């Protein structure tokens, strides 16, 4: 009898969207030109004209959320950095100005002195910037212990 009541309670509860799907919806609503694509293996693929590749990673072993963006060229444009800052501000609920400062700092560090693979921390976020001969990318994440 108790099992039947428990099953009935589960059947009548409203369906709730996943937290990561909610974040993707917020990104779509607040960033002009962003579209949400397929979901595979806890990664939601996004697209935007300023980015060659864009994705939202959800709750992995080493991070709670992750925003990955790949620029169209080797030197990211200010519009690309603004897109990444906007997305990171929404995902990690931090001010956009602070995110723009952190993203810019990570991308500007790549070069002759620091090399083409730079890892920085800003506002308790891990920022990993990588540059190849043809493109640049940035991954912004928060580790699970934060």
Task: Describe this protein's structure.
With 146 residues, the chain is of the alpha+beta class. The chain has four helices and seven strands; from the N terminus they run ααββββααβββ. The chain has helices at 2-12, 19-30, 78-92, 96-109, and strands at residues 35-40, 43-48, 51-58, 63-71, 117-122, 125-131, 136-143. The chain has a seven-stranded antiparallel beta sheet, with helices on one face. The longest helix is centred in the middle third of the chain and has 15 residues, at 78-92. The protein is globular, with a radius of gyration of 18 Å.
Structure, briefly:
This protein is of the alpha+beta class and 146 residues long. The protein has 4 helices and 7 strands; from the N terminus they run ααββββααβββ.
